[in-house]
Amino acid sequence: MNEILKIHSKNLINGCCNITGGGITENLPRVLPKGKAAEINLDKVKTLKIFKFLKQSNISDNEMLKTFNCGIGFCLIINKKNFKKVKNFFPKKYKPYPIGEIINSSKKKIIFNGSIKF
Asked: Which residue has the higher pLDDT, 27 or 21?
């Protein structure tokens, strides 16, 4: 949490979202302004072994994202030109990595592309 406060104090955050119950699908749209959507590239999501284990129980990818978040616990919305600066605020164990971008969209708030590698 200290990392977020430090990044905020440097005006490097455009938005952020704690991914709790409901996953990205329900939480991320709450911080997006009207006319914007998050386009998420699921190929970029890094999963831990526990999610690979859970997936063996024939849980749909949608449910894996909604219920278990697939290891995504927090999303930062930043200007991509500031990514290296933001990344440097985090210890190696918690380094952020890009999974998508904010786009113009008047229809959907979340657009998933690709698939998670379990």
From this structure: 27
